[in-house]
Amino acid sequence: MATRTPALFADDFLFLEAPKWREDRLWVSDVFDHKVCALCADGHRKTYLYVPNRPSGLGFLSDGSLIVASAKDSRLLKYTSGEQLAEYADLSKHTTGWLNDFAIDEHDRIYAGNFGYDFAAGEERRTTSLHRVDPDGTIEEVAREVDFPNGSVVIDGGRTLVVAETWAARLTAFDIDDAGRLSNRRVFADLGRRQPDGICVDAEGAIWAGIYNTGEFVRVLDGGKITDTVQFPGSGISCTLGGKSGKTLFMTAFIGTESDMAAGKRNSAIYTMEVDVRGGEFAKTQIGYKGKL
Predict the structure, then answer these.
(1) Which residues, other chains included, contact 25 with Cβ-Cβ below 8 Å and sequence gap of 6+?
(2) How big is the CA angle at 89 (ends 160 and 146), to the nearest 5 degrees?
(3) Helix (H, G, I), strand (E, B), or coil: what is residue 259?
(4) How far apart are CA 210 and CA 214, in angstroms?
(5) Coil, strand or helix: which one is 70?
(6) How far is Cα 115 from Cα 126, in angstroms, rounded to an integer?
(7) Which of 54, 70, 49, 48 is nearest to 16 (CA)?
(8) How far apart are CA 121 and CA 97, in angstroms?
(9) Which of 31, 67, 211, 256 could cross-link 216 (Cys pair, CB 3.0–4.6 Å)?
């Protein structure tokens, strides 16, 4: 198992989630600062959007439009260059906790998770459902009894959805059929005591996962074998693969304790590390959409 050393890319954030690489820029949600930012390859940042109910998951439709999860009011918002941020889907009647992360397949179907309970208020933990949002606005429940669904990604050429179940300390896989329904639920990786947060996939089908409770980032194969680890003194949050070659792993971490987080310390940062296998979604992030966000 390889242990790697990261480099600081950008800091002075509150809590960074859902990094995505798109056309030479890294997009990221600063959840507690209510901002969506984009960073150039040199780390220079620009705030693009203000999301009053806390931005969470990010993703891009096939036309290049940016989708943002507005967590506290359980809405998906859409942003296209030159337009106002607009509601794309309202999941507030379907969720039982804050809207969280999501994945988008090649048909622009969005698979979204939510906390399942009022985590911030200290409610008792309970499972929740995944919902699929179709381009025509249809919202359908596609999986039940998911334990705090967090980062997710579509792999295997659109045939499989992998979801991080944070409190269950596992990555869970589902088959996706032609209609976007999920079946054949199974464990992709049992992570023991490691609680996965955000995830991404590489071209070999391995998952990189930020581990919230241990401060690690791990590369894990289907079946659970861990091939690489990166350690931070705090919480590992989320990650994506990008850069010019697709082999730069961007990792968001919070350096410090949960008390530091609650106190509003700006200890969240982005780190980078060159890896051996490029991102599984790399080609999509470089070509196709020619507009500018």
Answers:
(1) 38, 39, 40, 41
(2) 45
(3) helix
(4) 9
(5) strand
(6) 9
(7) 54
(8) 11
(9) 211
In order of start, what are the domains of the chain with their CATH numbers?
Answer: 2-286 (2.120.10.30)
Counts for the chain of helices (H) and strands (E), in that order? 2, 25
Q: What is the CA radius of gyration of the chain?
A: 17
CA separation, residue 90 to residues 11, 28, 35, 71, 202 (Å): 33, 22, 20, 11, 31
Token pair belonging to 80: 């296209």
Residue 5: how many other CB atoms lie within 10 Å: 8
Amino acid, single-letter form, for residue 119? F
What is the C-alpha to C-alpha distance for residues 97 and 148, in angstroms, rounded to an integer? 10
Q: Confirm if 67 and 60 have CB atoms less than 8 A apart.
A: yes
For the question of whether the overall pTM of this predicted structure is more than 0.70, the answer is: yes
Q: What is the predicted pLDDT for the residue at 48?
A: 83
Q: Are strands 2-3 and 226-231 parallel, antiparallel or unpaired?
A: parallel
